[in-house]
Amino acid sequence: MAETYHVVRDVNLPLIGKGVPRMESRAKVTGAARYAADEPLAGALHATLVTSAHAKGTLTAIDTRAAEAVPGMRLVLTHRNMPALGDLARYTTGGAMQSSFFPLASTEIRYAGQIVALVVADAPETAEEAAKLVRPRIDGVAATASMHVDGAAEPVPVPEDRLPPIRVGDMDAAFAGADTIVEGEWRTPIQHHNPIELWFTAAEWRDGGLTAHVPSQWVTGTRAALATAFDLPVSRVRVLSRHVGGAFGSKGAVLNHTLVACAAARMLGRPVALYVSRSQMFTVGTMRPAATQRIRVAVRDGRLTGLEHTQIGQTSRFDTFFLPGTEQTTRLYAWDAIRADEATVATDVNTPGFMRAPAEVPTLFGLESAIDEAAWAAGVNPLDLRLNSSAAGGDSVSGLPWTSHGLDECLRRGAEAFGWSDWQPETRAMRRGDWLHGYGLASAVYPTYTAPATADLRLGSDLSATLTGAAHDMGMGTYTIVRQIVAAELGVPQDGIAVDLGDSDHAPNSVAGGARQAASFGSAVLDAARRVRSRVIELALAEGRPLAGADPTEIAFADGVMTASDGRTARLSEVVGLAPFGVIEVRGTWVPAAVGMKSVMELYRSGNAGIAGMVTDAYARAAFGANFVEVAVHTRTGEIRVPRMVGAFAFGRVLNERTARSQLTGGMIWGVGSVLHEATEVDHRYARYINGDLGEYFVPVNADVPSVEAILVEEEDRHINPLGAKGVGELGITGVNAAIANAVHHATGIRRRDAPIRMEHML
Ligand code: MOS
């Protein structure tokens, strides 16, 4: 179904988009903002997880006697006394769980670091001490935690009903007619999110109902999972997550430790608070899986013509987690022929999950590196090769038009701001003292996902307003942008608008993931504001009222005053005062046409409503960008620095230029980490991670990225949603890895087809 919207009224544009500082910033820097673990819980007990050292086998015994003898100990929860839970489902099948495997339900050991016990004590130190005394005995067998190792399982194609392969055009003709062909295999490692706020669950049972404080991107889904697990109506479960200290996909679906903590609290009749330690964060939850990109690219007359791309991603033994990366990245250019497939390799790890731009980070590393290699081989400027292959005329896979398409403008504006015209097709040519400099570029893409969303808005005659919704702010600026939307629509001061998010008692919403929230929840907020506005107009225009007879479609709202087209005015406070009790209260809803109203009931039931993805039946939908980077490689040490990055990004309407820029630059910096620093190393003998802590899992520091600039390329998009806004959260990281690999090649002449690229590879 085609969708066209009249976007936010032009009169209000000065506020939408403005770089209003985060409304919670003062609370955050003064420590007043409460994160899940800051909620006071009277009489709480403290819990610690015990995890398996073996990757695979059977738990033959678990000796808990020494642990139980520690003074102050309350409970050791193992598979022996873990109560049975309800029939939980993964998020892929209508539930909210990250993984289908619940460790404490059996004696099966399926990956290193899986939960084997929970220890609960009066004090955290006691729990820690006792946890060390729990003795699991495991009959271990050989295991493989890596797909990039001899003996790894064979790739299995993703079932076609879950992801149809892509077949476009005549592949043989495209390759037969090519003047340049590049073929290769690109590899990316396992990586972990490492948000600074650790995973945590505090559970409190009262009168048979459960309240859980969980750092979460999805309180509605978490509530549904807990209700299923403990056989409660959703109305008896409340999940709270008002501030989140970083999530990046790791706090989306529900993780097993949350269920374990809630079970222990019920058994003990006391609140239980459980921290997952930094090293346990590497195993008890989710991560970015390793992947391989098999790619063949054909070029003819300076244009991209043929693409074969198979992505092989790592999954667990018990779930098929796959990254539909080629589903998005094949659509970047106007290829004559495309063939794309996805496959998975089962390994002995926990089920992988979503980590910032999960699908695009690995696929673009391969694709945008291959295109750079093809440009060099064909003797074409890499910028021109991309511009000559523009898909602006429509998505070459579906044949559908784009709702808006900013890639070419991003490439041009980024190139100009960066100074790409200085690029010369010669490696090792830009030497400054001991450093070899190089330039690289890569395109960025992230699909526009939108999902059903709801929001509640109340406006009082004192012009104070309250906006609530089970949406989330993990630092992206949600509180701030939704307040801007309400203030812009109603012409009331932002200071008078309270925003309360992260509470499952509020209007239900889907996961704040896939960069969908601003576009989806923001549209529900806009709908709420428009409903209030309509109600106010109705009150003001009624017989005998101040604006009686005025044109209802031409009422301007600004500074607490309503102005009709004939010049008459009314004070908004007085008009709201005409409503019963002087309050107007509404629920705003927004449902993408491609999802359908039916999904709204699913949103209320489970929070797992459908999403509209990159392609609907009317449009292709994506945000685009272009990354330009300069690297410097030390000629003697091989050290790699990134002195300068410029990205240009088009993602529909900018809702707040400050928070949008912060999302983008954060993503760009993470892109540096994703290709130069980060890898979760596997000890292949034991199928265990070696560097599960922030001391040895490397991330970029300030010295690595002195200059990062994000250019916001505003687009007018009338088909995405009433706000005209696409997502921005995941876009910034995409393609950065390839841009850097390409710049490393320009600097040194060394091509690396695996990440991370480190100093030892430069010598
Ligand atoms: Mo994002 S990886 O879907 O939080």
UniProtKB/TrEMBL annotation:
GO MF entry, a single one: xanthine dehydrogenase activity
Enzyme class: oxidoreductase
Keyword tRNA-binding assigned: no
Domain Aldehyde oxidase/xanthine dehydrogenase a/b hammerhead: 30-142
SMART domains to which the protein is assigned, alphabetical: Ald_Xan_dh_C
The protein, known as: XdhA_4 protein
Gene field: xdhA_4
Alphabetically ordered keywords of this record: Molybdenum, Oxidoreductase
EC code(s) of this entry: 1.17.1.4
